[in-house]
Amino acid sequence: MAESCIFCLIAAGRAEAVTVFADPAVLAFMDTRPIRPGHVLIIPRAHHSDLLDLEPSAHASVFGAARVVGQAVRAAFRPKRLGMVVAGFDVPHAHVHLIPMAEYHDITSRPVLEGTVQAASISDLRLAAARIKLEMGGA
Fold first, then answer.
1. Contact (Cβ atoms closer than 8 angstroms) between residue 70 and residue 82
2. Residue 64 class from Cβ within 10 Å (0-12 exposed, 13-18 middle, 19+ buried)?
3. Quick one: how far is CA 61 from the chain centroid?
4. What is the pLDDT of residues 50-65, one digit of tens each?
5. Which entry of 47, 95, 97, 105 is annotated as an active-site residue?
6. 105 catalytic, yes or no?
7. At a CB cut-off of 8 Å and minimum separation 6, what does 115 contact?
8. What is the pTM for the complete model shown?
9. In terms of Cα–Cα distance, which of 94, 91, 116, 90 is closest to 103?
């Protein structure tokens, strides 16, 4: 664990996140500055700065979780498309963004550059998480 990595702290339970999926290798939680409601981050629990540095089994776990969570996000929010982005500039811990898309620029930097991305309230994050979990058969 990297002590200064917010995602490591979340994975260790030492920082808060609104979680939608968890297993021994992977954690999925709501992005606090969502491009669209339902924007989820999926991380390996072990710290790696790049997805390509993961062991094959950890890589498969991240993308397996992305498939399960992505299907639930798609069912819960009914976007035109569900975008999957791997960038890693914001937090140097391997992660995948699942973004319900209403338009192409939902996965570009336009919303960030235009300043239209705002922090979501905890109640909005919890509501979005509940919708996703419901689609995965959980509460």
1. yes
2. middle
3. 14
4. 999 999 999 999 999 9
5. 95
6. no
7. none
8. 0.91
9. 116
